[in-house]
Amino acid sequence: MCKRLLTPLLLVLSLLSTFSLSSQAKEVSTDYQFPLHSPFEATIAGTPSALRPPLPDSDNIHQHDYTLRLRPEREHSLPSNFWPVKTFRYRLASQKGPAPLVFIIAGTGAHYTSGTMEYLKKLFYGAGFHVAQISSPTSYDFMVGASPYATPGYSPQDAFDLYAVMRAIKQQQSNLEVTAWHLTGYSLGGLQAAFVSHLDEREGTFNFKRVLLLNPPVNLYTSVSNLNRLVHTQVLDEQDPRTFYQLMLDKITHYFSSKGHFNFDEAVLFELQSSSQKLTSNELAMLIGSVFRFAAADINFTSDLINRRGMITPIQKRIYDGTSLTPYFKKALLCDFECYIEKQLLPLWRVHFKDKMSIRSKGSDLEKLTYASSLYALSGYLKANHKIAVMHNADDIILGPGDLGFLKQHFGERATIYPYGGHLGNLDYRDNAADILEFFHE
């Protein structure tokens, strides 16, 4: 569900073509040399720089950030401190001549310029593609500048919003010579890419040639529940008076004291995990869960404010540039993703979407919403459409019981399953990068 959750620095600062019809997934095993076998360490640390693929420098990429005016009604209805996102922005890297274009959808809460988005841009650009980077529908800039409901989480509507953005980009970049259209997304963006592809089958604006889902949730509610539970992991003894964050800071302080200097680079977690201050799996789990809770707080606050629901920010309260948002952020932190679904997303879904569902499923409203927002709702489409593939990790922390089986059953040889890597931890590993490019070049 999450974007690349933490770089080592954030750990300190934020404490954070043709496919066979065979049903056998490609399971990478004995020859896979990704070095981190703990899903929590992999999720946080990512790939050591020596094991990443060569990428072009930013200075050698012809790119520009563009603006779309998609929600003009918000330019006067929102506080002035939202001015940077009242118009929607995206990044386009263009080749000198005709080339295929890849749309990239970011993961939960991620901006179009996030580290993972920049990595994927460089990977594709270096391979000869135009690249368009789009923020996640769960990011505050997308919610403000592009989404009519500003209440993300219902995948069909998120896909509709993304599709509108992609159409606007195509129109704005009408002079760009595009030989074929492709689509990918990571984490939640991978799930949304599947729904966008399904929508395009009906609308036909792009007729995507290749669609790749990178570490997507299968059942959205399962992934949310998994990540929410990490926040409640027990990490301290009952007799220990320190908070979780004090414990983490103490360990890191002791580690750098023993080294005699402070030098944080991408290898620090590997060194830390080999020292006496090694973080336990429970501590790493709670660290990941804490970052996810902050992402949920951002979504809660932004959705409540835009829609004037009064759950976090009183409806009559006027917010100005100098207004302290701390009390509202603290209140938003008390409502996790499950709380957001129940208090903001589900009521909106009942009013606007419940009676329009083309898929009728049994169960409660929450179960219907969950089903309609998960890959299960697209099972027939995913199984029959051979332009869509998925890459995932067997130890990904967002997966629940039966999720890997679903991917293997419905994607067959179009599913590549790596034995470890956590959630997106191996996305920039050289073997994974080669597999990604091979899929798009077939």
Write structural notes for this entry.
One of its GO terms (molecular function) is protein serine/threonine kinase activity. This is Serine/threonine protein kinase. InterPro entries: AB_hydrolase_fold, MlaA. Keywords: Kinase, Serine/threonine-protein kinase, Signal, Transferase. Residues 1-25 form the signal peptide. It is a single chain. Strand 8, helix 16 and strand 9 form a beta-alpha-beta unit. This protein is of the alpha/beta class and 442 residues long. It has 17 helices and nine strands. Helix 6 (155-172) crosses helix 7 and helix 8 (220-230) packs across helix 11 (281-307). Helix content is 42%, strand content 11%. The chain folds into two domains: 17-218 and 365-441, Rossmann fold; 227-347, no CATH class. The chain has a nine-stranded mixed β-sheet with strand order 1-9-8-7-6-4-5-3-2, sandwiched between helices.
